Amino acid sequence: MTQPPAPSAKDKLIIFDTTLRDGEQSPGVTLTANEKVEIAKQLSRLGVDVCEAGFPIASDGDFEAVERIAKEVGHLMTGRMSPTAKPMTICALARAVPADIQRAYDAIRHAPNHRVHTFLATSDIHLEYKLKISRTECVARAVAAVKFARDIGCNDVEFSPEDAGRSDRTFLCTVLAAVIKAGATTLNIPDTVGYNTPEEYGAMIRFLVDNVEGAKGVTWSTHCHNDLGLATANTLAGVANGARQVEVTINGIGERAGNTSLEELVMAIFTHPTAYPVYHTIDTYQIYHTSQLVTKKTGMVIQANKAIVGANAFAHESGIHQDGVLKNKSTYEIIEPAVVGIPSNSLVLGKHSGRNAFRTRLSEITRNSIYEDAMKADASMFEKLFAAFKKLADTKKSGVTDQDLFALLDDQLNVH
Ligand code: KIV
Ligand code: ZN
After folding, report:
1. Which ligand lies nearest the alpha carbon of 122?
2. What ipTM was reported for this prediction?
3. Which residues line ligand 1 (CB under 6 A)?
4. pLDDT tens sequence across 89-103
5. Phi-psi region at 4: left, alpha or beta (left = phi > 0; alpha = psi -120 to 50)
6. pTM of the model
7. For 223, phi and psi rounded to 5 degrees?
8. Residue 398 CB: number of other CB atoms within 10 A?
9. CA–CA separation, 24 and 20 (whole Å)
């Protein structure tokens, strides 16, 4: 475990990953069921508490993917290095209508821990132009949806007032109090269009925590979009004001400018352990590998200057910076790359590289991963990988990248 053991004064922060749902809503991204299962397995290794696997009513393919994740991944332990290890909760999204909720529940119910996440817009803009319903009707539909989910046997029900960031605060209190009474256990507050600033979003969470009736015992959750580049800052403001679940995606992928990025949020908390009174079970060593896997499967290339996982995130160009880092890394590095699983040496692998350099790189990028376990289990595997690497290096002029190495591992090891 890369975080210190949880001091008893700290609350658990639930990490809800929506890479496979909101992340898949990134323009141009479609994942197959196999790819979703593979990513979900890696999310459980990473230590995610809740995996939002998809939106089953959207297509038969998505239903099948969510159902397979519930059956094949739902029993896997998450946060396995922490004393609170448990099977990852598998969640599915549903609009606030019975057919959606039934379909979501049918897909997830095979997992030991499962959750239905239902949503309905609450902002006047959405009520008037999209749904064409009154506020009274909105409350009635939200309550009916949560009741329906509970009545068909789902005990873990999350409700989201879509576009909460632009909704009237008093009306939000009315809707949320009503859905709590109906049986909602998690209240998620989406800034659907990425409109809020950290001050606004933090104040909204504080206002709701303090004013929604009957909220004792429910979990407050953040869900921020990055239209103004503020998703991570808004999420942190939510945590500082009482949220104990964060909805995030790997590499920050998602609708339009994306969602809060898991790696940014986790490392902000890592570097400021006293500012946020929470602990979590993310194994930070898994971050780079997970990021690379999501890049490969979604085809969404990470911008070079992306925080934590971008190619330049730990690169130093100017002479002054290089001089400082050579003298002492802490001069210009706030995180050791190895803590997020990024190889700390800059050896370029190519056809002249020997076993030692190859072994070093491989062990750095696979530390604590599913690949490491598989390589340990097969003594002859290293030589097979080395031979495959040499073959590739002979044909690749630009050097062999970490992406190439992960592809070799996928080819040679039957891990997923
Ligand atoms: O951004 C949003 O409002 C959502 C909801 C469905 C939670 O993704
Ligand atoms: Zn969203």
Report:
1. 1
2. 0.99
3. 22, 119, 160, 162, 190, 192, 223, 225
4. 999 999 999 999 999
5. beta
6. 0.90
7. -150, 100
8. 8
9. 5
